[in-house]
Amino acid sequence: MEQGSEPDLGALLRDANEEELAVLIGGRLDEIDVRAARQAFRNPFLTGALIEALAASPGLSAAYELRREVVLHPRAPRLLALRLVSGLYWADLVRVGTDARLHPTVRRAADQRLVERLPG
């Protein structure tokens, strides 16, 4: 990276503290692309309210990768995760069903969806 150049938005979202993350997501939501949003999910300060804000963005909510990140995040609001779990691919449903960090209701919904998709 060149000296004096500003870090990309994804790196800022990944490395921000709690206050900076809220300001970045609140003030620059229209600039956040899917790649940058996925970096925000690596930030330990990401809260349920910030996850809801990212998921509500029209440009981001259409991306499968973001929906998967929401469901797989332990702090995702339960109702949001339950709404999105039905659209996941089977391999991701397995990941959700086996992730002990997630709420049991979300894991159970993933298991049920996986059973529905099994033939016979």
| Unreliable stretches covering 5 or more consecutive residues | none
Indicate the structural class. mainly alpha
Radius of gyration: 16 Å
DSSP strand count: 0
Order of helices and strands: HHHHHHHHH
Basic shape: elongated
Query: What can be said about the biggest beta sheet?
Result: none
Could you walk me through the main structural features you see in this protein, from its secondary elements to its overall organization?
- By secondary structure, this protein is mostly helical.
- Helix content is 65%, strand content 0%.
- The longest helix is centred in the C-terminal third of the chain and has 14 residues, at 104-117.
- The model has no long low-confidence stretch (mean pLDDT 93).
